[in-house]
Every structure is written in structure tokens, then in C-alpha cells.
Design brief:
Helices cover 72% and strands 5% of the residues. It is mainly alpha-helical. It has 5 helices and 2 strands.
Length: 125
């Protein structure tokens, strides 16, 4: 598999995992530190097995990892896939910023030429 395909597959997995609000909430919680499945399931009205399914999706996407601490398997957030998604989105942010700068320039030019025409009309009276 080529680099572009691997990157595309990782982005697909990342965005698919982020598409679910429960998984985004889990990631938000993990930003403040690692947590167990029990701790992660507390704010949700769902069973631990349901939370575990969400965790498996996040883990397959590389967004979290699970450690081993005696009987406990704490989950922690992994930054790399989010960084890759951010890098991909950054390209489009730059594109939009460039388009907005061009639009600002056109609007400024229109405003300037409109002001000159209005001033010219006033002088003729």
C-alpha cells in the first residue's frame, strides 16, 4: 500500500470515528487524562459493552490506546491521527482564507469606486 493510500485510509478511519457524538465526547474526556471504561461510561446512558464498542472504533482509528494497569485497562488519547486530520483540514482553511482575501479586495475596490462615483455626482449639482 502506498503512502497516499495509507494516509487516506487513516483519514477515513479518523473522520468515521469522529462522526459520532459519543466518540467525540469520549475523546474530549480523555483530553483531561486517561480513564477506565467504567469512568468513560458514567456520563452516558448506555451500557459498558456499548461504550466498549465505541472505544474499539476509536482504537482501530488510532485515536486512543489502552494500557495495562493490573486489572484496569486505562484509555488515553493519541494525538497523531488528530494531527493528520488537522493537517488535511489546514490545506482547505488556507484555500478559504485566500478566497476571503480576494473577496475583501474586490469589496474594497467596489466600495472605493462607488464612493468616487457618489462624490462626482455631488460635485456636478
Amino acid at each position: 500500500m502506498g503512502y497516499a493510500m495509507a494516509t487516506s485510509d487513516r483519514l477515513d478511519a479518523t473522520f468515521a470515528a469522529l462522526a459520532d457524538p459519543t466518540r467525540r465526547a469520549i475523546l474530549a474526556r480523555l483530553c483531561s487524562g486517561e480513564a477506565s471504561v467504567l469512568e468513560l461510561s458514567e456520563p452516558f446512558a448506555m451500557t459498558q459493552p456499548a461504550i466498549s464498542k465505541h472505544l474499539k472504533v476509536l482504537e482501530r482509528a488510532g485515536l486512543i490506546s489502552r494500557g495495562r494497569d493490573a486489572q484496569r485497562r486505562p484509555c488515553r488519547i493519541e494525538a497523531q491521527p488528530l494531527g493528520e486530520a488537522n493537517d488535511w483540514l489546514e490545506t482547505y482553511r488556507q484555500l478559504w482564507e485566500g478566497n476571503f482575501r480576494k473577496l475583501d479586495a474586490v469589496l474594497h475596490e467596489l466600495k472605493s469606486s462607488s464612493g468616487k462615483r457618489t462624490a462626482g455626482k455631488r460635485k456636478r449639482r
